[in-house]
Amino acid sequence: MDTVKRLARALIVPVLFLAAWEGISRAGWVSPIVLPAPSQVFLRWIAYARPLQPYDPSQGSWIAWAFSGELPQDAATSLLRVAGGFALGAGLALPLGLLMGAKPAVHELFNPLVQVLRPIPPIAFIPLAILWFGLGDPPAFFLISLGAFFPVLMNTIAGVRNVDGIYLRAARNLGASEWTLFRRIMIPAAMPYILAGLRIGVGVAFIVVIVAEMIAVNAGLGYRILEAREYFWSDKVIAGMISIGLAGLGIDLVMNRLNAWLLRWHRGVEG
Amino acid sequence: MATHAAPGPAAEPAIRIRGVRKAFTTGRREVLALDGIDLDVAAGELVCLLGPSGCGKSTLLNAVAGFSPPTAGTIVANGRPVTAPGPDRAMVFQEYALFPWMTVERNVAFGLEMAGASRPEIRARVDALLEKLRLSDFRDRFPKDLSGGMRQRVAIARVLAIDSPMLLMDEPFGALDALTRRNLQDELLRIWAELRRTIVFVTHGIEESIYLADRVVVMTYRPGTVKRLVPIALPRPRDPSSAEFNALKREISALVMEEQLRHEQAEGRATAD
Known about the structure:
The complex is a heterodimer. Chain A is mainly alpha-helical. Chain A has 11 helices and no strands. Helix content of chain A is 77%, strand content 0%.
């Protein structure tokens, strides 16, 4: 009974919002090009997600057919870009961050450059990225990895620097060498920070992928909503936006699960 | 590893502290934490360092552990001058210092892995220790899921695993409730009677020090020096309600109170500044 009540309460505002929106659009107060009705957006979203051809067993498996629509293809393209760019950016930031956190000399060496580059939004690198890498996937990967790089780097440094000294003392006392100390004490102790950095990094990577697709490439969710605008298909623009939102939510859920599992030893695990 | 013969009259002490002085600089003023400490601890002896907070007892223990070297003087432990932390002087911390990302079992195994023990060897030894400290049912738990008393038992198992000839304990039971503390004190005495390790135990509990120690080292407040060595000749198990126990308690309380008073006067002066 209680969960039914809570569910009902959670639905009140969204339902009223959609009803008002539908009413405004149907009343003809605004042009459907400016603001299409939610029912129209929904139909367009179905059309966007559906396979373009009827199912033909000779053309391959049922699963491949189900994902042959424009939306699944766009989403897969965008998510693969995020995955590749994120792996590149985080893959470079992690070892550098660990080194900068553990070795003050390395920190002194790299920190000035990092501090100057870090506040530049990755979006501001777009012109350079196009000059350097042309159009297509290479500039997109560059921008995405840049977006993921700094959050992961900064959090890894902070994580290693904030390792409670008592763990280091206890481990040294038990005979740990410097390398063991780094591998088995510092890295796990810094893990809550590192994972928070990875989560921020993946979020930024997802923002950057949409922007990069609006500029340098011709596939993916970001490209699709810009293309739809060219044809004044505002229902498809909104359907694309909602798809982007769902993809972002999906990424966050996966990261959350990963966090909860890797930090199951930790006191204040969220999620 | 090596078994330790009972100390003869001429036996080399397990710890020899000579002329140890330790100064800290905090801000602009220099604080003399320890001054002119001379102390011998015999092999297999259980010694308590007792004094009010700020008397430098933990500083002395950290110096013996090799975490922070003294400003002047020498410390020789197990026949070697102390220069760095090492598993021959196993430390038990008040805050337990268990590795929170490792299960109970992994925590206890850590020191053995560092020593390069083989897998079956580690397994057997960890099993035996978990059994001894009644932790077998909790081997797969993480420290966050244990009570304070259980965490400290894991910390004790972790240092016993490396078979150190010497245990340094820094107010290990200070954060526990009275009942748990008494349980762990008895457990420690049982283990000590069985293994006869040298134990240096830092505490500010007068009763705790009399209950446990062969000798109580009463320290002065800042700079920390040895105020008095009080041998505790009572047979174990000791009864804290006995007349002899209470006589010792009165004697040591009087010594500690003098220092507590100096401490409070110093605090008063500091706030009046």
